[in-house]
Design a protein that fits this description.
This protein has two domains: 219 residues, Alpha-Beta Horseshoe (pyruvate-formate lyase- activating enzyme); 89 residues, no CATH class. It is built from 13 helices and nine strands. The strands form two sheets. Strands 1-2-3-4-5-6 form a six-stranded parallel sheet, with helices on both faces. Strands 7-8-9 form a three-stranded mixed sheet, sandwiched between helices. It binds iron/sulfur cluster (SF4).
């Protein structure tokens, strides 16, 4: 990911601000809600368990925990997680922490150095053994045709996750910088040049993954969405309201489906207005099935609304389509009706805006 954030060459983590200031900035952010907002620490390809980063990670965790905050916290890692780390995580009393171990099963060293994968697998096993209040997810990514979608590799990944609380799978960021770098190493990238801001997970690969999981007899639940895996692990409804995107839920355990179904409520106009006012945002809005259309808000602006509502908040210019929610359209074909629905929503919102102006 550092390829497209422009910091690929930065190999040594840099402390940008002191830890107490980082905690204050997080908890004082207008989009942060105590006990509600899910928090991911070190999410720009800086592994939180790197030796130079870990002390800060634990300082932040303790700092938030001591404030009595119960927010869900996501820590994504491929690095060394020890028994001592797990003991420290288990001592937290309030935060609900999930460790997500990125592991793809790819054995081509140009894509995934073998030594790193071995570290990840050891860490995953350590975390599964020691985690009680700390939840553990095998983050199966990226899955790419020709790289790691053969039956043997899939079976190996599923076996690695057998003791985790959940497995979450997803695709690869097909960005020009990533593809260029991999091709320069001689790696075959199976997608053409249609680069996208969303990850690629063609429908047929999705089907393959589900079939492999079913055939493996695995008892650990599998999820398409990170938030779904995290919420299942902690026994709470999905904070992103994916229940409104029903085709995501066919592989979810019944008990979790009941939790999400019971919690899923379309927002009232008053609720939405209060949140927008509090955040200082303005947007036309339209309820449409299981989601709320908005227009002109950035992803960072839509997410706090989504988390507070527990309801999907979409942008008209970045629509989602069936079986491709949050995914690039590589390997998916939106139906005519879906495209017509987006056009109709756009028209209705334009009408709304005109009436508002009147
Ligand atoms: S029921 Fe659907 S929305 Fe809820 S966690 Fe499962 S997959 Fe996600």
């Amino acid at each position: 990911m550092r390829h497209f954030w422009g910091n690929f060459e930065v190999k040594t983590p840099q402390l940008l601000i002191p830890t107490p200031q980082a905690i204050d900035m997080l908890t004082g952010h207008p989009g942060f809600r105590p006990h509600v907002t899910p928090v991911q620490l070190f999410n720009k390809a800086t592994d939180p368990f790197l030796p130079g980063v870990k002390p800060h990670l634990f300082d932040v965790l303790r700092g938030l925990d001591e404030r009595g905050l119960t927010n869900l916290v996501l820590l994504i890692t491929r690095f060394r997680v020890t028994d001592a780390d797990m003991a420290a995580l288990e001592q937290l009393r309030n935060l609900r922490v999930t460790l997500l171990f990125t592991y793809s099963g790819i054995t081509d060293p140009r894509v995934e150095p073998i030594a790193k994968s071995a570290i990840t697998l050891t860490s995953l096993a350590t975390a599964c053994r020691a985690g009680t209040r700390t939840k553990v997810i095998l983050y199966w990514r990226p899955i790419v045709p020709g790289w790691n979608d053969d039956p043997a590799t899939m079976a190996r990944v599923l076996d690695a996750g057998r003791d985790a609380d959940a497995i979450v799978f997803t695709g690869y960021y097909h960005k020009e910088q990533n593809a260029g770098y991999l091709r320069s190493l001689g790696v075959e990238v199976p997608y053409a040049d249609g680069y996208d801001r969303r990850k690629v997970m063609p429908a047929e690969v999705d089907e393959k993954v589900i079939a492999a999981w079913r055939a493996s007899g695995a008892t650990v639940p599998l999820f398409r969405k990170t938030s779904c895996g995290v919420c299942f692990a902690h026994g709470v409804p999905d904070y992103n309201g994916h229940w409104g995107v029903s085709e995501l839920c066919d592989i979810c355990p019944q008990t979790q489906r009941a939790l999400c179904r019971d919690a899923h409520r379309p927002p009232t106009a008053g609720q939405l207005r209060r949140i927008l006012d509090q955040l200082g945002y303005d947007t036309p809005a339209l309820l449409d099935g299981g989601h709320l259309w908005t227009n002109g808000l950035t992803e960072q602006q839509r997410y706090p609304i989504q988390h507070q509502l527990g309801f999907q908040v979409w942008d008209l210019d970045l629509p989602h389509f069936a079986h491709a929610h949050g995914r690039s359209l590589h390997g998916h074909q939106p139906g005519e009706q879906e495209l017509a629905d987006v056009a109709a929503a756009r028209e209705r919102m334009a009408m709304q805006a005109r009436f508002d102006d009147d």
